[in-house]
Every structure is written in structure tokens, then in C-alpha cells.
Amino acid sequence: MEGKTTAKSDTISYDGEKDIVTLKGDTTRSEYISEKDTAYAKIIFYDQKNEIFRLQTNAWYKGDKNEVKGEKSITIKKPKSFRSVAGQ
Fold first, then answer.
1. Residues near 88 by beta carbon (within 8 Å), at least 6 away in sequence
2. 20-76 tens-digit pLDDT
């Protein structure tokens, strides 16, 4: 998480080997807010190395130019530009 970034959740963990931040909300939705991205979901996985967000349950994501919502799951891969979104 670079620059101005905030993360709120019941549980926040970091896997240094995989460079993945995980936010898990037991009582509330997790939130990840940076200068470029805003994400809310019950569970947020952010792969910093590959710039991939995986949002699960009641998910909402807003990037520089795009906004996506999904009840179950959203995967966002963003190398330099918003390339793909897969919602279920």
C-alpha cells in the first residue's frame, strides 16, 4: 500500500512472501482507500505486486475511470490501466 492509503477492517493481515494484503470484516464491510482506488467488501484481497484486487461479498470498487459493483465477487486486474473485470 503506497502513498496516501487507508485500510479499515476487523482483521488486517499481510503476507510478505506473496505481497498480499487481506482485509476481513466480521461485523462490518472492509474498506481500502488510496489515491487511485476505493474498494468496499466483506473481504478484500489486494495483490500489490500484480495490482489485482479480489473483493468478496457486497463488493464495490471505484478506480480512476471505472466503478463496479457485485453481490458475490469482483476481480480487478490493473496493470497501468483498468484492463479486466470479472463479476459473478
1. 70, 72, 73, 74
2. 999 999 988 999 999 889 999 999 999 988 889 999 999 999 988 889 999 888 888
Secondary structure (DSSP) of the chain: --SS-EEE-SEEEEETTTTEEEEE-SSS-EEEE-SS-EEEESEEEEETTTTEEEEESSEEEE-SS-EEEESSEEEEE-SSS--EEEE-
In whole angstroms, give the CA distance from residue 49 to residue 9: 21
Number of residues assigned to the chain: 88
Task: Using the structure block, give the residue that is written with the C-alpha cell 500484480.
Answer: 50
* Residue pLDDT, tens place only, 64-82: 888 999 988 888 887 554 4
